[in-house]
Every structure is written in C-alpha cells, then in structure tokens.
Amino acid sequence: MSTLRFFAIQETLNRKPVKIVEKKRRSELFGKNVYNKSTMQQTLTKDAFESVSNAIEKGTKIERSIADQIASSMKDWALGKGVTHYTHWFQPLTGATAEKHDAFFETIGEGDAIEKFGGGQLVQQEPDASSFPNGGIRNTFEARGYTAWDPTSPAFIYGTTLCIPTVFVAYTGEALDYKTPLLRALQAVDGAAVAVCKYFDKNVKKVNASLGWEQEYFLIDSALVSSRPDILLTGRTLLGHASAKGQQLDDHYFGTIPNRAMSYMRDLETECMLLGIPVKTRHNEVAPNQFELAPIYEEANLAVDHNALLMDVMDKVAERHNFKVLFHEKPFAGINGSGKHNNWSLSTDTGVNLLSPGKTPMSNLQFLTFFVNTIKAVNDNEELLRAAIASASNDHRLGANEAPPAIMSVFIGKQLTKVLNELENVTSGKLSPEEKTDLKLNVVGKIPEILLDNTDRNRTSPFAFTGNKFEFRAVGSKANCANPMTLLNSIVAKQLMAFKTEVDALIEKKDMKKDDAVFNVLREYIKKSKTILFEGNGYGEAWEKEAKKRGLSNNKTTPGALEVKISKKAKAIYEELGVMNAVEVEARYEIEMEDYIMRIQIEGRVLGDIARNHIVPTAIKYQNILIENAKGLKEIYGETEFKKVAKAQLDLIEEISSHIVTINDSVTKMTNMRKKANSIEDVTSKAKAYCDKVKPLFDDIRYHCDKLELLVDDELWPLTKYRELLFTK
Ligand code: ADP
Ligand code: MG
User: Residue 342: enclosing H or E segment and its boundaries?
Assistant: First the structure.
C-alpha cells in the first residue's frame, strides 16, 4: 500500500468525534449574530428604523444621513461582540462567496486611533472587478465594479468580521453577481402577483417568493480526501472501481447518524443558529457518508444568501472535525449523487400562501389561478428551466436514473389532475349561474379536502407540486439557488402579467364578470399546458420517447442545454421584466460555457496525470514482480512444465500490458483532443468540443484503470479505494 494511502486510512481510523457541548437552547442562540429587525429596533433611532423598514418592505432609498446613523449603530453592536473587521459580502459568478476585510480601526493624528465605520462604507465599496468572471463586460466597458448594500438581507457576524450582504455590479450598471438579477426578478414577480391578487383581495400590497432548499452533501475524512488528487482538485473521483458493498442494502438512508458526522452536524447547527439560518432537519441520505440538511423556508433572497453562507460555514466547520464536505453532484460513480431541491411558493403580506388551497371557494379560485399560471410558465419555458440548472457537475446526475431526467415536466397528483380536467370543460364565454355554483361547490370548493389525503408523491418528477408548494428537484447540490430562482420567478412574473392582460380584456371587451373571465382564461391555459404535465415514471425509457413525441427538450449536456439562454425569447423575457439586459444575458452565457470548459479541462488533466503517473507505473511494478516470478518458475520447472504452472502469471502479464497500452493511447488521444479544442475561439464550439470529443475519453481511461485496480496487488495500489473512502469511519 502506498504510504499516503496507508497513513490516510490509519489517521481516519484513529479519529475521535469532537466533543460538542450545547449550553444554550437553540432558540436562545437563534439570530444572536445577526443585525436583524429586533436588534435594529433596539439600537436605531425611530427615524432610522423606519427608513430601513421601508427600504426592506418597499424598496425605498435610504438617505445618506440615515445611513450614517445605521452604520454607527451597526458598528457599536458589532464591536460589542468582539468584531474587528467589516466586509461587503457578495456572490460573484464564480459560484463561491467573496469578501475583502477592512478593519474598523483608523488612525487619527499622531499615535491615536479610533474605530470608524460610516454610511459611505456601509452603502458602497469598490472591490477590483477584474479578477471575477464578467463574460466580456469588462472588455466592453470599464474594469471597475462596486458592491452596494442590500438592506433586505441582514448583516451578520462571522468569526470576528461584520459581513454586509451586497450586490456586485459593473460601473456601467451591469450585474456581475447572482443577487442583482434575483432581486430584480423577485421585484417583478411581486408586482405581477400583487396585480393578480387584487382580483381576489384588494388588501394585498406585497407578494414574496419563498424558498426552502434541501442541501445534500457527502462528508469524507480530510486525510482520505488528501490521498485522492482527483477529489482534491475536481471535487469528485475520476476513477476507482466500485466497492463490493455500496448502497445495495439500503442501510444508510434515515439510518443512525454516525458519531463523528453527528458531532459535525451539531457544531454546524449551532453556527447556523447564531447566523440566523433556520436549519431544522438532518438525516442520512441514500449513499454511505451522504447526508441532508434542510431549513425552515424563508423569503427567497434571504434563503439564497443563507444557502450560500451555509455552504461556506459547512466547509469551515468541517475543518474542525477533520472532514471535507463534498458538494459535487456526483462524487462517486455508481453511488447516489447529491441535489438541492428548491421548494418554492408565493405568499402575500396578508399571510396567504398563494399555492395553498384556502377555506373558501374564492380563495381556492385564487389558489387555482397561481397553480395553473405556474404550470403554464413551466410549460412555455421548460428549456430555460433546464438551462438554469445546467453545469458540468450536474450533468452526471440528470438523466442518470437516480435523479430527475434532463426532461422537465410537472407532477401534480391524481386529485388535482381531476380538478384540472373538470375545469377544462367549463363553458366558453359566460358561465350559467348553475354551472358556476356547481363549480364552486363541487370542484373548486372541494380542493382542501382532497389535498388532505393527497399522499402520492412522485419522486421521479423534476418539478412536483407537493401540497402547498412546488418542488424544483433538478437543482444541483453545488449550485447557487439564485440561478434557478431568478428564472422561475421571472417566467412566473411574465406569465401572471399575461394572465392579467387576458382577464382584463375579457372583463372590458366581453363584459364578463371577473370569475367568468378567470375561469375562461384558466380553461385555455389548462388546455395549452398539457404537454408539461406528466404523472408517470420520469426515470423510464418510455418517458423519453413520449416526451420526444410531445416536443419537450431533452438536453443531456450543459453546452446543449445552455444555448437557449441567449435565445431571442430568453432575452425578451429578461429585458421586458428588467431582470437583465442583452449584455448581461450574453455575459452570463459566456461565463457558464467557460466554466464548463475549464472544469472538463481540469478533469482531463488530472485524469491524465493519475493514469500516467500513478496507475501505469504501479501496474508495471506489479507486472515486473510477475515476470520475476515467472522467470523463477521457469528455472525450477523448465520450458514445458513451466507454461502450465505459470499460466495465471503469464495471462496476467499479458492482460496488464493490454490495459496499459489502451490507457496510454487514450491519454494521448485525450491530450490531442484538448489541444484541438483549445485552439477553437468560439466559446460554444469549444464547449461542444470538450463535451463531445474530450469527455467521452474519460470513460475509456477510467474503465481500464479500474480493471487494473482489480488485477494489481492491493499492497501496491496507490489510490485510496472506494470501499475505504465510503466505509472507513
Ligand atoms: P421533503 O421534501 O424532504 O419531504 P418537506 O416537504 O417537509 O421535505 O420540506 C422540504 C422543504 O420545503 C423545507 O425546507 C421546508 O421549509 C420547505 N417548505 C415547506 N413549505 C414551503 C413553502 N410554502 N414554500 C417554500 N418552501 C417550503
Ligand atoms: Mg424534497
């Protein structure tokens, strides 16, 4: 066994769980390190508090003098908690969060210093934008960018730093981060949904999108990870033969959480409490060493920030426990991958979940309106939804018969299917009083009851209605939720605007009553959205065929999926809603394609290195031992007898050679293909070359390396094996 592999296993076996003592109740810890509303109320003047509240609720601007007051209170609060630095915390398009710390400390005159933090520093900063992905925006415009305070997401303390959530934009105004378009999309859906709510309740003034993510991840000992260059550099294993025992026995899901993992989770949860991240659920997932963490849902912008922050905190806490968190969607071949279900709904400032059936027929008509409009939005934009979750790592998961397929469809359950079928048959034009009464009593009025016993939950659907929310299940575990959330809220906003226009037209031009108009438009929407509704097994081959007939897209790879992002249609949606302009859309497309290219490129290099510099030399070493042995046998038994006695050795020598030859050829071929791909200018063609020409060679190389793993003496094998990665505790 290589020394690295030996020590990694040894070290892992010797680990003890870190002792965690929870001295306080979680409710007492919750939000302690957050400059939230109640802290603001306690520390701000009445004027300042009102100003922030209005900024949060109505998006109004905060006066500079008020910003100074807020900054000063925020600083005092933070200093009281031992904080020394502050940072604008943002989410550039790298997928990681970014921060640059500045001390509060400033010198005044000779030898004296004070702690200073003014409104200017709170509101705006200028980090150098040139080292963050910008998709060409930097070349076309100015290199500089700035971060600006987002008061809707409260400042928090992490370690000894006060973190202020901010947007990150170019000097020319283009968004360079995930948050900016998300905020714009949330504003769009708010406006559009409020307008539709007015049909049912004049008091509604604001609609918030909610998000509850479910974060899946693997926890692997850090020593084991260090012994695997592929996990270290790419987040996943690029080779490794399957372990004899994997997840076949289904003995991990919801099983007892292992001690070390449990102590990690408790430590993590305490940190989350302090940061105001309302984590609630933890459990083992399907694969060995795979787990899930889910919070109580929150307003979408805050939930997105909390998920991004959580992923950071998970990494940091893991260090204390000698773990490495794997967020990759597919760290191990043949073993369950990780996703991040995005549970989504819309709710009003009057406390109504618009995707939850209500108590009266009227509120149910409102529910049906939002329900059907969401389905229609997904129906009309399924390709964009697929594109919003595309990444090199998520490609391993989608369509791999364990996670949602690359085909988008909506599952609503038997009962609601029946309701939609009945609504589809309502009379065109004005409804008779009898028909309306019947609809209200027997169809719309029955919804809450039927939902109560709605127990069918189709786990194979990428977009499922689950009683009071839609669950977008195809999102990757590594993804920033802002991407799918921006898209989903945008297409729903656009759809609701179209709905309002149509209903208003019927009321004005056809002299219809409001209910009649709503029923009429919904009926047409139901007819038009049939394509996307699917209740069957989403993993089956039959669905692939059926979906093709229906004209649904099935983009299995990222370069294929991303192309619609720069379609006329996509640009028009974002532009109309003011979410992104054409330059921003194009820039994002380029960044995501580049990201794909670079990830496949890195994987190719790492795989080539491991195959040539670790696997092949090991195989040769073992082959030499066999050769020595065969020579010895020949000496003892002589030319003819020896061929019988040494048959196994001779066969092995030959088999090893044939694998070595193929590996060597494939690595050479892969390197050449990479060189060819690298010479391509156009980002789309380049990504496609990496996808179609470079990536398929990974499988060839891996196949033969994994075969060698089965042949070569375990003592010599350099890489920590699957069984060791997954089962050493
Ligand atoms: P599972 O999908 O594993 O069965 P649940 O359905 O209980 O789990 O909830 C999953 C997530 O959905 C949780 O994070 C929860 O907070 C969130 N959730 C529940 N209701 C809503 C809602 N109305 N809007 C958004 N998210 C919600
Ligand atoms: Mg779920």
Answer: strand 340-348
Q: Rounded to whole angstroms, how far apart are CA atoms 648 and 444?
A: 74
Q: How far is the CA of 395 from the centre of ligand 2 (A)?
A: 20
> Looking at the structure, do residues 209 and 165 belong to the same domain, yes or no?
no
Q: How many domains does the chain have?
A: 3
Counting ligands in written order, which one lies closest to the CA of residue 282?
1
- Ligand nearest to C-alpha 293: 1
Indicate whether 140 pLDDT > 60.
no
Radius of gyration over every alpha carbon of the chain, rounded to an integer in angstroms: 29
Mean pLDDT of 349-363: 88
210 pocket-lining for ligand 1 (C-beta < 6 Å): yes
- Nearest-atom number in ligand 1 for the CA of 356 is 23
With a CB cutoff of 8 Å and minimum separation 6, the contacts of 58 are none
Site to probe by mutation for ligand 1, drawn from 297, 370, 492 as the one with most ligand atoms within 8 Å of Cβ, is 297
Q: Which whole-number Å values give the CA distances from 295 to 213, 308, 348, 462, in the listed order?
A: 7, 13, 21, 20
Same domain, 298 and 417: yes
The predicted model gives 456-462 an average pLDDT of: 80
**544 and 650, same domain (yes or no):** no
Largest CA distance in the chain: 106
Residue with the smallest CA separation from ligand 1 atom 14 is 212
* pLDDT for res 406: 92
Q: Domain boundary residue among 175, 201, 223?
A: 175
Tell me the residue range of the domain where 666 lies. Answer: 593-727
pLDDT tens-digit readout, 155-167 = 999 999 999 999 9
13 located within any domain: no
**Secondary structure percentages of the chain, helix, strand, coil, to 5:** 55, 15, 35
Which of 175, 207, 232 is the endpoint of a domain?
A: 175
For ligand 1, atom 4: residue with the closest CA: 466
Measured from the CB, is residue 467 less than 6 Å from ligand 1? no
Where is mean pLDDT largest: 16-30, 391-405, 684-698?
684-698
Q: Per the confidence metrics, is the pTM higher than 0.85?
A: yes
| 294 Cβ inside 6 Å of ligand 1 | yes
Atom of ligand 1 nearest to the CA of 211: 25
Look at residue 455 in the predicted model and tell me its pLDDT.
54
What CATH number is given to the structural domain containing 133? 3.10.20.70
pLDDT of residue 673: 98
Q: Which residues contact 409 (CB under 8 A, 6 or more apart)?
A: 382, 461, 462, 463, 532, 533, 534, 538, 543, 547, 552
Share of the chain above pLDDT 90, in %: 77
CA–centroid distance for 634 within its chain = 61
Task: Tell me whether residue 26 is in a domain.
Answer: no
